[in-house]
Amino acid sequence: MVWKKLGPGNFSNCPNGSRQWIWDVFGECAQDGWDEASVGLGLISIFCFAASTFPQYIKACKTGNMDQALSLWFLLGWIGGDSCNLIGSFLADQLPLQTYTAVYYVLADLLMLSLYFHYKSKRRPSASSAPINSVLFFILGMACITPLLSRTGSVAAPREVFQGRTLLSVEPASKPFTRQEIIGFVIGSVSSLLYLLSRLPQIRTNFLRKSTQGISYSLFALVMLGNTLYGLSVLLKNPEVGQSEGSYVLHHLPWLVGSLGVLLLDTIISIQFLVYRKAATSSERQPLLPS
């Protein structure tokens, strides 16, 4: 995509006076205000993702009922989506901010899943803990070795003259998918589907419990904010030279669907927080004995 590293010592290849600090930190060109805004929003989104899990960790330690409040299928779907997103972001040559977010969130998911089984084993010790730990270590191993895949076949292409961003472009230019990108695109599509499906078990769990007790709303609020900024950071980034807007969006479509499409389901969960919080408040105000 646009944010490909040009290799060491190639800062002179960045047209239109790219920001030096962006090149020093990320090794990429920020060619105008759109690119700079994309970097800024992407960094804020990473902060939101990084901070979102801590309130749930604290909530889990206080209540001790994380295994009852959160659906296991929600956590498995979430970590499955993040794992596919991580692999796909490398194979499809996505923006580095997308890759950094994917790496961190897989690790955060593993910690969340570990806490879930920790509290579940305290309530009901199970013989299946060993296979589950094996799966967790396997996913962690995949998260560590996947970055090596991005090094194969990555050749820096010379930059042409930058022409700026043209919204609603009708240029016929279209960047073809490579074999590696096709595989990454498919994996990214699977990750988006897992993201969407992961919310459904949690919505069902909240509905059956008629409660969101044990769940930190900050988890979903920060994820919603992070996904919004994450999608905007992708959309604001300039397409490659000679690439149309439509081709750029198509190459990033699975990740856009995964980040922006899940906002609808997170909104439903937010409504559940409001509804069940009001129901809990009204039940607390009822008299203990009938008059």
Features:
9 helices; mainly alpha; 291 residues; disordered N terminus
Radius of gyration: 22 Å
Quantity of strands, as a count: 0
Strand content: under 5%
Number of helices: 9
Order of helices and strands: HHHHHHHHH
> Unreliable stretches, pLDDT < 50, 5 or more residues?
1-11, 150-172
Whole-number mean pLDDT: 75
Helix content: 55-70%
Q: What is the SS-derived class?
A: mainly alpha
Shape: elongated
Query: How many strands, which pairing sense, and closed or not: the largest β-sheet?
Result: none
Span of the ends, CA to CA:
70 Å
Provide a compact summary of the structure.
Keywords: Membrane, Transmembrane, Transmembrane helix. This protein has 291 residues and is mostly helical.
